[in-house]
């Protein structure tokens, strides 16, 4: 198990100074005490911002309740945890506004690959390197939450993803995950011939069609267009260079389920679990929702073919949802205790397994899920890349643009112009910081 995740090592914000800090420094591992204090308990209120994680509300709330009991027993601190679960489409903007205006949560979620560089540069991330959680992290995972040799977040979701496929349908029709776009077209034809919808389409939420961006740019950027991201960051490139990305997008869009803009993530997970489509361009982060809808459902993970170059068909490896301690938070000591409890040697096994996340700690002993092992086959063969660092604004815009593209309100050239402009605008903003 650990070998599969150690392989990940090969792959590998924001505004004004925030007021109202208590000035309390984060304790190091040696500074915390496990002895129970005497007298009346100290009362602490923590604000925890968990963007896009509402589907895991029950698991987090139960775990936070366990932490509160532990903190009361060991330190005589009475902790109240106020959680906030904004949706994926607007959580990033809400968090940026909160941080910039001084309404700072004690702990907040962020995307490790996309967000850490900007949030760190803005001074919003507390250094967790000396915390007990730091040496527990699997090396390959640790690298993706580290900047300037500092661990600045606790990884929750470590990912190896591409698209999901219905194992029963593939087995019944003797289909194997294709290695090229031409092979994918043959798979689509076979599914259509058997009156099975090839792809689940769920574009009600823009972040779902946005998934095409990291998958296509990741595959092309690690095969035929290795300098694409660097050129875009220097205002020297254009999406016109990777226009072939529309090949797989067009194939998916023209061979999918109906009611595209009525189906969001939850409905898509339920429909996929009911066998209404053979494939879904979606990640294993939806495993919990899928299995809640059908606990007998078996799905696999495979890399998405982009063109007829099999070397471009690779698994995307990333750490997405992570938890950070706000550098300007008011309750750093208790916040650090909570983050350390997130990777508690015993309790965190049940938490991560309950969330259906991959192991991230050297002390995690639970067996990876079958879909993790599917993806690890490709990772261990070197058919994987680190999630490309694309500006968040470009990702957000790509989702909206691809919704419009599906609805024929934008052409491929319109999408290219739109994304080129958005990337240049993001460069201009980054250069001013």
TrEMBL record:
The lineage of its organism: Bacteria, Bacillati, Bacillota, Bacilli, Bacillales. It comes from Paenibacillus silvestris. One of its GO terms (cellular component) is ATP-binding cassette (ABC) transporter complex, substrate-binding subunit-containing. Keywords: Signal, Transport. It holds the Pfam family SBP_bac_1. The keyword Signal applies. The keyword Hydrolase does not apply. Residues 1-21 form the signal peptide. GO terms for molecular function: maltose binding. Belongs to the bacterial solute-binding protein 1 family. One of its GO terms (biological process) is maltose transport. This is Extracellular solute-binding protein. PANTHER family: MALTOSE-BINDING PERIPLASMIC PROTEIN, MALTOSE_MALTODEXTRIN-BINDING PERIPLASMIC PROTEIN.
């Amino acid at each position: 198990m650990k070998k599969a995740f150690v392989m990940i090592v090969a792959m590998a914000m924001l505004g004004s100074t925030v007021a109202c800090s208590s000035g309390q420094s984060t304790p190091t591992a040696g500074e915390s005490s496990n002895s129970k204090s005497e007298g009346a308990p100290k009362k602490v209120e923590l604000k925890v911002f968990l963007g896009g994680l509402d589907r895991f509300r029950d698991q987090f709330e139960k775990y936070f309740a366990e932490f509160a009991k532990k903190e009361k027993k060991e330190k005589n601190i009475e902790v109240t945890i106020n959680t906030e679960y904004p949706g994926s489409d607007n959580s990033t903007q809400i968090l940026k506004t909160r941080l910039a205006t001084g309404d700072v949560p004690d702990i907040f979620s962020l995307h490790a690959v996309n967000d850490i560089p900007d949030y760190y540069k803005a001074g919003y991330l507390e250094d967790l390197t000396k915390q007990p959680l730091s040496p527990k992290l699997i090396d390959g995972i640790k690298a993706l939450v580290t900047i300037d040799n500092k661990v600045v977040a606790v990884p929750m979701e470590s990912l190896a993803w591409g698209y999901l496929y219905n194992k029963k349908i593939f087995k019944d029709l003797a289909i194997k995950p294709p290695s090229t776009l031409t092979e994918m077209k043959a798979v689509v034809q076979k599914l259509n011939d058997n009156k099975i919808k090839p792809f689940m389409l769920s574009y009600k939420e823009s972040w779902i069609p946005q998934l095409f961006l990291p998958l296509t740019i990741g595959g092309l950027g690690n095969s035929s267009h290795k300098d694409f991201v660097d050129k875009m960051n220097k205002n020297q490139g254009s999406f016109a260079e990777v226009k072939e990305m529309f090949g797989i997008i067009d194939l998916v869009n023209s061979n999918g389920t109906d009611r595209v803009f009525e189906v969001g993530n939850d409905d898509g997970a339920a429909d996929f679990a009911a066998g209404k489509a053979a494939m879904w361009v979606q990640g294993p982060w939806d495993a919990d929702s899928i299995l809640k809808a059908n606990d007998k459902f078996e799905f696999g993970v495979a890399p998405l073919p982009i063109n007829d170059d099999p070397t471009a068909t690779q698994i995307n490896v990333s750490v997405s949802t992570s938890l950070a301690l706000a550098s300007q938070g008011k309750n750093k000591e208790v916040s650090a205790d909570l983050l350390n409890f997130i990777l508690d040697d015993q309790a965190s096994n049940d938490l991560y397994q309950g969330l259906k996340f991959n192991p991230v700690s050297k002390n995690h002993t639970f067996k990876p899920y079958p879909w993790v092992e599917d993806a690890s086959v490709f990772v261990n063969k070197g058919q994987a890349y680190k999630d490309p660092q694309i500006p968040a604004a470009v990702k957000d815009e790509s989702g909206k643009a691809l919704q419009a593209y599906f609805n024929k309100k934008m052409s491929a050239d319109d999408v290219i112009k739109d994304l080129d402009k958005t990337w240049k605008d993001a460069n201009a903003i980054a250069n001013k910081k």
